[in-house]
Specification:
The longest helix has about 50 residues. By secondary structure, the chain is mainly alpha-helical. It is built from seven helices and two strands; from the N terminus they run αααββαααα. The protein has two domains: about 70 residues, Arc Repressor Mutant, subunit A, CATH 1.10.10.10; about 130 residues. Helix 5 runs antiparallel to helix 6, helix 5 runs parallel beside helix 7 and helix 6 runs antiparallel to helix 7.
Length: about 210
């Protein structure tokens, strides 16, 4: 029996006495409790249960439709599955994004350090015109690091705003929420990668030009 079925069964058991989200969460042991809020909100919107707000608390009551409206229940079950799948994808996206950013930081830092060492130990007197190339590569590497830091900060801000919106919705009795992806942070990550590759390109031209001279 899934969470939606547990919620409907408990509300039917309570009958005319009504059941609050807190009552349902305690009786069904559904965790996190926000899941109960989302389920009761959807059931009420679908017309499968009645809802009456008293003060700051919602009370839910059974309706006859909860017995026969199997199509809606099937759709609701499918919605739960899709939400769980989406949350899993979001977790994977978050992990991959953090790994990508760490890789960019590592590569940019290593490339910057290696280019300085190369200039000091292998090509201490480079061709005059190639100075522009090495300076361009350093600027690109440094820009890559700055952009990736900005991407981190923007992603943190997006998470904070999302958490605040969820808390606000729950306080207002709105149980729906939408986890947002920071598109700007994603774009910044790609710009950072572009700056890194550009720096590598400049550095390769610098190295080849001096080693072959």
């Amino acid at each position: 029996m899934n969470h939606t079925d547990l919620v409907i069964r408990f509300i039917k058991q309570k009958g005319g006495a009504g059941a609050t989200n807190k009552d349902i969460a305690h009786a069904t042991q559904i965790k996190p409790h926000q899941q109960v809020f989302m389920i009761t909100s959807r059931l009420r919107e679908l017309g499968l249960i009645n809802g009456n707000k008293k003060g700051n608390e919602w009370y839910f009551y059974p309706r006859e439709k909860t017995v026969n409206n199997t199509d809606n229940l099937i759709n609701d079950n499918r919605r739960d599955e899709l939400i769980e799948f989406r949350n899993a994808l979001m977790d994977e996206y978050q992990k991959n994004s953090e790994a990508f950013d760490k890789t960019i930081i590592t590569l940019a830092s290593a490339a910057l350090a290696f280019s300085v060492t190369f200039l000091n130990d292998i090509v201490p007197n480079p061709i005059i015109w190639t100075y522009a190339l090495i300076f361009a590569s350093w600027i690109s590497f440094g820009l890559s690091l700055v952009i990736i830091v900005l991407s981190y900060l923007m992603a943190i801000k997006t998470r904070e705003d999302t958490i605040k919106q969820i808390d606000k919705n729950l306080s207002a009795g709105k149980e729906n929420y939408n986890w947002r992806i920071s598109r700007s942070a994603t774009r910044l990550s790609w710009f950072s990668a572009g700056a890194l590759f550009l720096g590598i390109f400049f550095y390769i031209i610098f190295a080849i030009s001096n080693l072959l001279s």
